């Protein structure tokens, strides 16, 4: 089998998602609802069956299942950085290929390229969007969700190193989208989750693997101090909030 070449950041992200894979699906409530929203937005713009679709960063298949359940797609290829994701989507797609989307060999003349909650891991989104556009057939659709700069803003304020490299607000997507694509839908709307303490909050991050860039080592004293500062700055009625800041975008190739 051909080995996949990854840079150190990609290796760390892959390790984090691989570690959280078994628990990801049931704990990624925010991502599940973001994927459903993406399909709802897309549905209003597709009127005929999609011939050839490609999804990158499919994970355990929240978007894959929603898409296949709600829209007519003749053939679908899925991808993820983590090879084991192929097992999760085996019954939902026609083919799966592992590797980083940045350098992956992808088919041309696609009628739909989609991805939920993954583009924030791609540092050069302008280059990615140009590449995706090049692989779309005329009239083909691009359906993406990523996260804006308020993603986990509580953690950012408390000095966490967990941020993904590509948080991008709705108003900044337009500058990254090549002229070959027309933006049809662009929405940003936060989702706030509430936790009983710092431990369950950090457990949630670990179980969903979304903390890929974090190199934090937690001692009991550090956790206690973190919880105190979190509660002081953001706590409400004994609970701690964690903000997801999703951005949804639908575009069409002219
Ligand atoms: C937050 S999960 C989202 C999974 C799924 N799309 C969902 O909506 O639940 C992000 C996924 O992107 C994958 N990923 C991260 N960087 C990637 C890259 N450069 N190329 C392909 N997949 C990547 C991770 O392995 C992970 O499965």
Automatic annotation (TrEMBL):
Name assigned to this protein: Putative trans-aconitate 2-methyltransferase
Keyword match Methyltransferase: yes
InterPro entries named among the record's database cross-references: SAM-dependent_MTases_sf
SUPFAM superfamilies in the record: S-adenosyl-L-methionine-dependent methyltransferases (SSF53335)
GO BP terms: methylation
One Pfam family linked to the record: Methyltransf_23
Tree of life domain: Bacteria
Top enzyme class: transferase
Provenance organism: Falsiruegeria mediterranea M17
Keywords: Methyltransferase, Transferase
Entry's EC annotation: 2.1.1.144
Record's keyword annotation contains Methyltransferase: yes
Transmembrane segments: none
Molecular functions per Gene Ontology: trans-aconitate 2-methyltransferase activity
């Amino acid at each position: 089998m051909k080995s996949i070449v990854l840079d150190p950041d990609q290796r760390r992200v892959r390790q984090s998602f691989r570690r959280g894979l078994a628990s990801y699906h049931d704990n990624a409530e925010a991502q599940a609802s973001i994927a459903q929203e993406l399909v709802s937005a897309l549905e209003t713009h597709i009127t005929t069956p999609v011939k050839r679709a490609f999804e990158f960063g499919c994970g355990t298949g929240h978007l894959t299942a929603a898409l296949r359940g709600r829209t007519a797609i003749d053939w679908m290829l899925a991808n993820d950085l983590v090879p084991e994701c192929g097992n999760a989507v085996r019954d939902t797609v026609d083919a799966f290929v592992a590797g980083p989307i940045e350098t992956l060999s992808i088919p041309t003349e696609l009628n739909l390229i989609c991805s939920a909650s993954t583009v924030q891991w791609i540092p050069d989104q302008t280059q990615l969007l140009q590449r995706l556009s090049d692989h779309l057939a005329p009239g083909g659709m691009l359906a993406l969700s990523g996260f804006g700069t308020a993603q986990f803003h509580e953690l950012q304020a408390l000095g966490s190193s967990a941020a993904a490299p590509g948080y991008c607000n709705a108003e900044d997507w337009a500058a990254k989208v090549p002229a070959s694509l027309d933006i049809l839908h662009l929405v940003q709307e936060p989702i706030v989750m509430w936790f009983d303490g710092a431990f369950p909050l950090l457990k949630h991050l670990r179980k969903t693997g979304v903390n890929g860039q974090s190199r934090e080592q937690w001692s009991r004293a550090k956790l206690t101090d973190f919880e105190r500062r979190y509660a002081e700055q953001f706590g409400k009625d004994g609970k701690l909030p964690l903000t997801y800041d999703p951005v949804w975008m639908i575009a069409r190739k002219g």
